[in-house]
Structures are given as C-alpha cells and as structure tokens.
From TrEMBL:
Its EC number is 5.3.1.9. Signal peptide: none annotated. It comes from the Bacteria. It is found in: Cytoplasm. Gene3D superfamilies: 1.10.1390.10, Glucose-6-phosphate isomerase like protein, domain 1. Pathway: Carbohydrate degradation; glycolysis; D-glyceraldehyde 3-phosphate and glycerone phosphate from D-glucose: step 2/4; Carbohydrate biosynthesis; gluconeogenesis. This is Glucose-6-phosphate isomerase. Coiled coil: none annotated. The active site is at 353 (proton donor), 384, 512. It comes from Inquilinus ginsengisoli. PANTHER family: GLUCOSE-6-PHOSPHATE ISOMERASE. Catalyzes the reversible isomerization of glucose-6-phosphate to fructose-6-phosphate. Belongs to the GPI family.
Length: 546
C-alpha cells in the first residue's frame, strides 16, 4: 500500500464512504432546507453550487483533512513563490506570474521575473494595437484581416478556446483561424479562405521543435512565397510566439517579430503569456488585461481563502471523492454557452496532460486512481447525445454544468430555455424518479397491470448523480479568466493530493519518437525495420494502397 492509501485521512474517507452507501441526495436535501447555502460559494460574479453532491459536512471535513495532509496549502505557496515544483524538469510553475500584480516581485533563481512579464505584455500590446488599428500592414500596404495561429496542444487549445469564448469582443475586421492538426486538410482548408496580402501567421510553439507546427508553418510560408510575395515580406506576415529564439531564427522569422515567454510557463497553462497574442489581437489589449485580472482574482482567492471556502479546493476534493472512493473514471464538462464550445477540449489537455500520471513524486507506481477522463459538449447538444448514460447508465459521472446568466445574444426566449435545461438536468440527476412516481405517471396515462409493470423499470431514474453548477453573470474576459484559473487550480489541488507531478508530460514522448522512426518507411526512404506484426501489416497495407 502507498503512503497515501494507508494514511489516516484516506482510511477515514474509506470508512466514511461505506457509511455513505445508500444515502440519497434527495434525503439530504429534504433534511436540510439550507443545503444550498451551506454548499455554495461565490467569488464576485462567479457562483459555485456544489450542493448536488453525495456529501455531508462530515465528508467535506474529511476531504479537507486529506488535502491538508497532502500539503495542498504548502505546495500552493511553493508554486506561487516560484519554487521548482515541476520536479522532473526542475522548473518553477509560474503561469500565475503572467497575471500577477506587476508592481510586486516573484523570483526565479533569485531574479524578479515580473519586469520581463511587463515587457512582454507591452510588446504584445504595441503589436496588437498596430494590427488592430491598421497601422501594421501587409507587404502591399493593406491592413491585416486574417490571423492564422499555427500551434498545437497548449499553443492552440488555450488561444482557440479563449478566442472562441470571447467572439462578441472580436475586432470587426479581423477573422481568426487556428491550425493545429498535421493533417494537411487543416492548413489547406484554411489557406483557401485567406488572402496572402492581408494574412498574418502567428507560429506558436514553446519549444519551436514541434513537428506538427513546423510542418504547417513551412507549408504556410511556401504558400505565402508562392503567391508572389518577396522573401523580405515574411517579416510583415509571420511572427513567432516561443521561448526558443535560436529555432525561431533558423525557421527564418526575425526575432524582432518574436514574442517570448519562459520555461516556467507550461504549454497547457500558457494562454496568459505571449501564446495569448492571437487573443489579444482579436479582443484588444485592454480586454486581454481584464482576462488576466480575472485569473489574478482567482489566484488571490486560491491563495488566501481557507480550503473550506476555497473554490478550486472544493472542486478538487470533490473530484478526488468520486474518483478515489466511488470509482468514477470520468468527469463531464458541460458548458451551456455556445461560445464555450472548446472548453471541454481545452480542459481535456489541461487536466489529462497534467494528472494523467501513474507514478508518484517518489517514482513509485500509484495504487489509486489519478486524473479522470474529461469529456463534454456544449449544452443542450450533449443532452441529446450522451446524457442517457449519465442519467441511467451504470457509471458515476460527476458533471460540471457551466452557464452564464446573461446571454450575448438574448434572442426571443432562447436563453431562458437554455437555463431551464441547466437547472432541470442537475435537478433530474440529483432527484431521479422513483418506481412509485413512475407507477403513478403510468397509471395516469392509462396503463395498468402487467403492461405497466413491464415498462416501469425502464422509466425509473435512480438519481443521486452528482453535479456542480457554475454560474457566471456573463461570459466576458474577466469571468472567463476566473473560470480558467479556477480549473487550473482545481487540477493543481488534485495533483497535489495524488502526489504526482502535474506539470510534466512525459507520456506524450513515446508516440512522437515512434512516429519519427516510422516516417521514413512511409516516405519510401527506408525499409520498415523491426516492428510488431500489426505495425508491419498496417505499413504494408498503406504501401499497397498508396
Ligand atoms: O508549444 P509546443 O512546444 O509546440 O508544444 C505543444 C504541445 O506539445 C506538448 O508538449 C505535448 O504534446 C504539449 O504539452 C504542448 O502544449
């Protein structure tokens, strides 16, 4: 057994979990009319209702004991202080510095990093202002109409999610495109829609060695030059967002057009950095600052609120409760806002790349579950797709319902209908429908006897299915900043409880290595070499058909 699973806090939760067997949330609500007041929290214009969970005050007490036992507060303080808590890469984890009060000081290796953050933001502001006001033109003197961000993983998902979430704030002249997939279709379809004279490519890659990004960037450059633009025009149409000046120069982008950041910014936490430049161009520097301010407000809350009133801590321990004590394998992210349609994809990387680990910080195989499988779709689309399983399947699927109270598009009665679905879903999941209720309904509809009894089991909803509801007044740059930082810190809390390193991602390396080894065979440059029979069989089939 690991230190964690034999620890006092864990064993107490194990025992408590058994005591919670058979406890239905329906009864918890019936017994306590103030349950919502006890199990909800607000931070400014963000409200978290976590009352529809299989928890009592005792459960939460035990979960916070676990969080304290695992040093959540100490690790949190170490993160904010710039200590190298990313142990396998010996790096600080300081995405919080990107949105910090720049008058302060945060040191990495004895150096205050905030002046560099301020300088980078200034550079981004000057550039984005120029693109937006039309003073930055293409090589033929026309203002930029299309921004094409080429990046993948954290260099794509953060920018595309935030950009899409904030479409109502976009500059009217500027269209945004995000190319990530190495599948040629992605870049080819994008290039069809743009004009080289008015396009600006942002090559976003922390390392500037990522194969997908460089392949797409090279294709974009060839396409641009092929349009008749001279080599010197590249400087007007290509910029780099990266930590790697050497590779940026090698690619042919002038480092004057490079927006830098630092190795203490993890890819999946980098939208607050120069990687956010496409967002800043789309929404303007002031709105981007409001996004940073939202993140900063959540940071201040996470640092100072006692765990019991701490939004990220509450979300974090609830996930641990279901994953480790109720065998939940997944977690659904269900934004009831079309503009948030990329949030589930964004959180897939943020969460699964961070906590998808099976070795603890001491290098031992864990004997407990770590990060969940994250999935989701915007509501109400998900309701007509996979919610059947959430309501009546055999699995416990904790859900986060996320919704703005005000819509950017208050057309007809759409928004009340949308919101009624949020409330209805969480209520239905919690309360369910008993056999007696179904019997009464069926009787009323005229059914009776054997026919009624035959249909009855299919129409029963067990209920007791957990959900959180996160309401914001409206999705604006500030509340989005709050929301993104909320999830970042939730992931941090969970990784700390699980004693894993949340800020590395070694698990993505093997596939990259093997792809490099297989590529020459597909290009016909080499014989396939030694592989298993499946890989060889597939290679042969591909060769046959190409
Ligand atoms: O920004 P880069 O260096 O191109 O990396 C892109 C992505 O690739 C990964 O390293 C893993 O695939 C992610 O963590 C990262 O966000």
């Amino acid at each position: 057994m690991s230190d964690l699973t034999r620890s006092p806090a864990w064993t107490a939760l194990d025992a408590h979990r058994k005591a919670m067997d058979g406890v239905h949330m329906r009864d918890l609500f019936a017994a306590d009319p103030k349950r919502f007041d006890s199990f909800s929290l607000r931070l400014g214009d963000l409200l978290l209702d976590y009352s529809k969970n299989r928890v009592t005050a005792e459960t939460l007490g035990l979960l916070f004991d676990l969080a304290r036992q695992q040093g959540v507060e100490t690790w949190r303080d170490r993160m904010f202080a710039g200590e190298p808590i990313n142990g396998t890469e010996h790096r600080a984890v300081l995405h919080t510095a990107l949105r910090a009060d720049l008058a302060g000081s945060i040191e990495v290796d004895g150096q205050n990093v905030l002046p560099e953050v301020a300088a980078s933001l200034k550079h981004m502001r000057e550039f984005s202002d120029a693109v937006r006001d039309g003073s930055w033109t293409g090589h033929t003197g026309k203002p930029i109409t299309d921004i094409i961000n080429i990046g993948i993983g954290g260099s794509d998902l953060g920018p595309v999610m935030v950009s899409e979430a904030l479409v109502p704030y976009h500059h009217p002249r500027i269209r945004m495109h995000f190319v990530s997939n190495v599948d040629g279709t992605h870049i080819a379809e994008t290039l069809k829609r743009i004009d080289p004279e008015t396009s600006l490519f942002l090559i976003a890659s922390k390392t500037f060695t990522t194969q997908e990004t460089l392949t797409n960037a090279n294709t974009a450059r060839r396409w641009f030059l092929h349009s008749g633009a001279p080599e010197a025009a590249i400087a007007k149409h290509f910029a780099a967002l990266s930590t790697n000046a050497t590779e940026v120069s090698k690619f042919g982008i002038d480092t004057a057009n490079m927006f830098g950041f630092w190795d203490w910014v993890g890819g999946r936490y980098s939208v607050w950095s120069a990687i956010g430049l496409p967002v800043m161009i789309a929404i303007g520097a002031d709105a981007f600052e409001r996004f940073l301010a939202g993140g900063r407000a959540m940071d201040a809350h996470f640092r100072s609120a006692p765990l019991e009133q701490n939004l990220p801590a509450v979300l974090g321990v609830l996930g641990v409760w279901y994953g480790n004590f109720w065998d939940a394998q997944t977690h659904a992210v269900l934004p009831y806002d079309q503009y948030l349609h990329r949030l589930p994809a964004y959180l897939q990387q943020a969460d699964m790349e961070s906590n998808g680990k099976s070795v603890d910080r001491q290098g031992h195989r864990v004997d407990y579950q770590t990060g969940p499988v994250i999935f989701g779709e915007p509501g109400t689309n998900g309701q007509h797709s996979f919610y059947q399983l959430i309501h009546q399947g055999t699995k416990v699927i904790p859900c986060d319902f996320i919704a703005p109270v005000e819509s950017h598009n208050p057309v007809d009665d759409h928004h009340p209908i949308l919101l009624s679905n949020v409330l209805a879903q969480t209520e239905a999941l919690m309360v369910g429908k008993t056999p007696d209720q179904v019997r009464a309904e069926l009787t009323k509809s005229g059914l009776s006897g054997a026919a009624l009894e035959a249909l009855l089991p299919f129409k029963v909803f067990e209920g007791n299915r957990p959900s959180n509801t996160i309401l914001v007044r409206e999705i604006d740059p500030y509340t989005l900043g709050l929301l993104v930082a909320l999830y970042e810190h939730k992931i941090f809390v969970q990784g700390t409880i699980w004693n894993v390193y949340s800020f590395d991602q070694w698990g993505v390396e093997l596939g990259k290595q093997l792809a490099k080894a297989i590529q020459p065979a597909l290009l016909g440059e080499k014989a396939p070499g030694a592989h298993d029979s499946s890989t060889l069989g597939l290679l042969a089939a591909i060769r046959d058909w190409s």
